[in-house]
Amino acid sequence: MTDAQVSLDERLGPVSVEGSALADQIFDIVGNAIVEGTLEPGEKVNDKELAAALGISRTPVREALQRLTWVGLVEVAPSRYTRVTEITDEMVSSTLEYMGMQASVALQLAMRRMDADELAEAVELLDRVIAATEADDAEAMMNESLALLEYLVGKSANPVFSAMMAETSLLVARNLRHLHPEAGSSAHRLECFREMRAAMLAGDADAAEKWFRKQHGIGVDTSL
């Protein structure tokens, strides 16, 4: 549990009035605090207390909390509470499904737009995922997978897709932070990653997407 003696301002850190919009900064600060567990699941968050802790007005805090509610990191019951959402098995499962679908779309878009050097870099990032999987290092595999996804999203050259992925990135990171792959699934993941790698090198976007989806257990045409 969070140490009750640690003040909210110490837990959240300073805010700069320079650079990005203040509400965006608050979104990042509070969102990252939720991802890292500084603000725990079920913990109540109050716009007045947050504003006082950060030394700012309540308006940008309210705007940030509205975005965090839309994303799914915060939940609101009018006149009762505003609090950090709990992480349930269903939420983790839904997040994995979402990430698998979106990662597949990112790969499909990126492969149609990357040049040879960019494709080589994507394959190098995938190799890191494969190495982490072979080492049975769950944390490294998740971190390397997110790095690959971030790269593919950036190379998708689709600003709408990129914006939507950025908006949900904190939720994905929080929900999957302590995820441990099921025992016995390494062989399946390695097969999918290696087939995906071969398809990428062959320039076959459809086959690469198929193997990416299969790795996440999402419906695919297995006849491909």
Please characterize this protein's 3D structure.
The chain is mainly α. Helix content is 65%, strand content 4%. The protein has helices at 8-12, 22-36, 47-54, 58-71, 89-111, 116-134, 138-154, 159-175, 186-201, 205-215, and strands spanning 74-77, 81-84. It has a two-stranded antiparallel ribbon with strand order 1-2. Helix 6 (116-134) packs antiparallel against helix 9 and helix 9 (186-201) packs antiparallel against helix 10. It is elongated, with a radius of gyration of 20 Å. The chain starts with 7 loop residues before the first helix and ends in a 9-residue tail after the last helix. The model is unreliable at 220-224 (pLDDT under 50).
Unreliable stretches covering 5 or more consecutive residues: 220-224
Strand composition percent:
under 5%
Query: What's the helix count?
Result: 10
Terminus-to-terminus distance: 49 Å
Largest sheet: 2 strands, antiparallel
Percentage of helical residues? 55-70%
Category by helix and strand content: mainly alpha
Rounded mean pLDDT is: 86
Instruction: Identify the strand order in the major beta sheet.
Output: 1-2
Total strands: 2
> What spatial form do the alpha-carbon principal axes imply?
elongated
